[in-house]
Write a structure and sequence with these properties.
The chain is an alpha/beta fold and about 260 residues long. About 45% of the residues lie in helices and about 15% in strands. Helix 1 (about 10-20) links the parallel strand 1 and strand 2 (about 25-30).
Length: about 260
């Protein structure tokens, strides 16, 4: 496969790139940082900047067999505007620009998060975000009195909703799109999530037995990008070591 991957320099993205390369696939990484030997080709890309995205799209030579939209920022204090621009607005801008560079029957995988699980409760705010352009984001953050943690959760909710909402469109195009929602993965930004979400993260990790590994999230994402998952469309696949099941079991008083 020829794979286009955003965010291939660190964390889950680096694991995806390394695994794809080891399996003989060709990886073009779009990232602000250099992915090194894990990618065959690096196109420097800042997803918060529409001009950078446009330049990256011009430099991208398809056709690609898969697009993995993995780049994202964590819920770090002071980054609310950037989180919205990178994790959702930039993701969608890059996605739309790549559609004509994808081969027939290609797969698209969007990295969401278990932090987006409450999307059903926040549809009005999600739809408001989905209607924004890059230039509207600063005002939206002010109007919504939004901190970085809510911005992060909102972007991941929106990625899940967008993936579902565009499933029929992608099918008509001869493409398929899914999202993957990892939780508490042991990468360099895990501390950001512990800071943002507090004791809940530590409790969930303890109940699951350990944090997830980047390789474990990468394996699921690569499966969704592969022909073996051809009949999976418009779904969000949660990768959380059972955390969602345990929370649901508690809520439903099953144990």
């Amino acid at each position: 496969m020829r794979v286009a991957l955003t965010g291939g320099a660190t964390g889950i993205g680096a694991a995806i790139a390394q695994k794809l390369k080891a399996a003989g696939h060709h990886v073009t990484a779009f990232d602000i940082g250099d992915p090194g030997p894990n990618a065959d080709h690096w196109i420097k890309t800042d997803l918060s900047d529409p001009n950078s995205i446009a330049n990256a799209l011009d430099a991208a030579e398809g056709p690609f067999d898969a697009l993995i939209n993995n780049a994202g920022l964590p819920p770090r204090e002071g980054l609310a505007e950037l989180v919205l621009k990178v994790n959702y607005i930039g993701l969608c801008t890059f996605l739309d620009g790549m559609l004509d560079k994808l081969a027939s029957d290609s797969a698209i995988v969007n990295t969401a998060s278990r932090a987006g699980a409450a999307w059903r409760d926040n549809l009005d705010q999600i739809k408001a975000l989905m209607a924004l352009s890059n230039s509207d984001v600063a005002r939206f953050v002010v109007d919504q009195n939004m901190d970085a943690t809510r911005a992060y959760n909102l972007t991941k909710e929106a990625v899940i909703v967008m993936t579902m909402a565009r499933a029929e469109e992608m099918t008509r195009r001869g493409l398929r799109m899914n999202s993957a929602s990892p939780a508490a993965v042991s990468t360099g930004i895990l501390d950001d999530f512990i800071t943002a979400f507090g004791e809940k993260v530590a409790k969930n990790i303890a109940r699951a037995g350990r944090a997830g590994l980047p390789d474990e999230a990468a394996d699921v994402i690569i499966f969704l990008a592969s022909p073996e998952s051809a009949w999976i469309k418009g779904q969000d696949i949660v990768i959380d070591g059972g955390m969602s099941a345990m929370a649901m079991s508690d809520a439903l008083e099953l144990t």
